[in-house]
Amino acid sequence: MIKLNNITATYTTVRGKVDAVDDVNITIPDGQIVGVAGESGCGKSTLLKVIYGDLIFPLALSKGVVEYEIKTGKGNGKKITSKNIQNHWFKHISYIPQSSMSSLNPVVRIRKQFLDFMDHEQRKAYPLESIREYVKSLDLPPEALDAYPHQLSGGMRQRIMVAMGTFFKPDVILADEPTTALDVVVQKGILQLLMEIQEQMQNTIIFVSHDMGVHYQISHKMLIMYAAKVVEFGDSENVFNGSLHPYTKMLIDSLPTIGNNQMREGIAGRPPSLWGELHGCRFAPRCPLSTDLCRQKEPELIEYRPGHFAACHYVEKTQQ
Ligand code: ADP
Ligand code: MG
Fold this sequence. Notes:
Layout: E1 2-13, E2 16-28, E3 33-37, H1 44-52, E4 59-68, E5 80-81, E6 93-96, H2 100-103, H3 110-116, H4 120-125, H5 128-137, H6 154-166, E7 172-176, H7 184-201, E8 204-208, H8 212-218, E9 221-226, E10 229-235, H9 236-241, H10 246-253, H11 292-296, E11 302-305, E12 308-310, H12 313-319
Parallel strand pairs: 3-8, 3-9, 6-7, 7-8
Antiparallel strand pairs: 1-2, 1-4, 4-5, 9-10, 10-12, 11-12
């Protein structure tokens, strides 16, 4: 279980400060694929960095704390927060980035990079042969370990990233648009692989994609973000079939439908800049249901059905 207690995450820049995740208060349960969606710039990657505890300048937590309950191994029972989660990287929480090219060192063979993220004890416990076996079990040729990154295809490199991120069977795997740079067929293979791993290990995967079609296929839970806020959170079935927030509805409606491969019209307008003063509901300027109240008062994230949350004044008026 990961508890985000009133989290605000802020970038400090020469232009000033910007809250890329703003007062987020949610609990992420164990053992499910949690999909994070929302338009570009809404804070999805920042949210993952916060959960990973990858808080390096210019990013910092300006409010709140993340609490982790780790089930397995050495982490069991210890108090783990944003301050010490780094001690649990790879073993209990791992991160699969969007681009394997920028995370792999181009001049170092894959096998060495695999070993480089292990400490002394782990290298003794997990000899190269065990890595070869694992890589083979993910349908990668074991020789891939002897290659330099550029000798592998984009899809193979991303499978290597998945192998690195899952080797120690972490309780939590964070994947930030892990297939965006790949073509559709290769994408499917990687997503399939992640789903199989999750089914086997029963761990939590927090999976960022702006593609609602992909979420529909793989995510058990959905977390919808808009302009640094969580606007809806719940089981995928409820979020897709009984979405509460007008923004979620619009995201779903912009999906292509069967028989019509054309992307439907996107949502008109753009999210507000996070740099300015923000009043009321951030979606109000684009929302067909907005009223004066929406423009003035920020809606709270409320649980309308067990485990199904939304932040919307219209929903508040009509659902209670
Ligand atoms: P997403 O992953 O949803 O596209 P991000 O989390 O990357 O969104 O970014 C959220 C907001 O934070 C954006 O408005 C972006 O401009 C800002 N941001 C992201 N990275 C930085 C950075 N290194 N410095 C300053 N601002 C940043
Ligand atoms: Mg991103």
